[in-house]
Amino acid sequence: MRKLIEAPSGIAGVEEMVALRARMNPRVWAVARALDAVRGRDPEVERSWQDRLASRLRGCQQIVARLAREGSLRPGLGERQAADLLWSLTSLRTWEDLVLERRWTAEQYRALLGDDPRRPHRRRGGPGEPWSVCASGFTRRPPPVTQGDRRGSS
Description:
6 helices; mainly alpha
């Protein structure tokens, strides 16, 4: 969680959240499925399950609050909706559907849900439009850099 909070921007926080899920989900998936199967019959397991969900939601809320402070939240999308969207997109079930069922690679999951700006295949909307790829789809893309805005250029 510290990496998410210390990310250089809200968008970087989204990317780190998705990268964390891409790294962790393969390791915890089998145990999580077993716990999910018994949590309805075991109150302690259910409490632990709900605690993990609540913790992830708090992390999503912190990231989204930062996006809002930075002016990166898509107009018309409230912080609660954006946090719920990020929470859902980073759920174990979404990872399971995409990676295990639809056979995405972990890299595809990370790159497409996190909308990593360093990836050349990244799709964006037109000028002033929101990004069009999954998790970062709830953020507004930064304004383009114009010739006069470049630092250190002659």
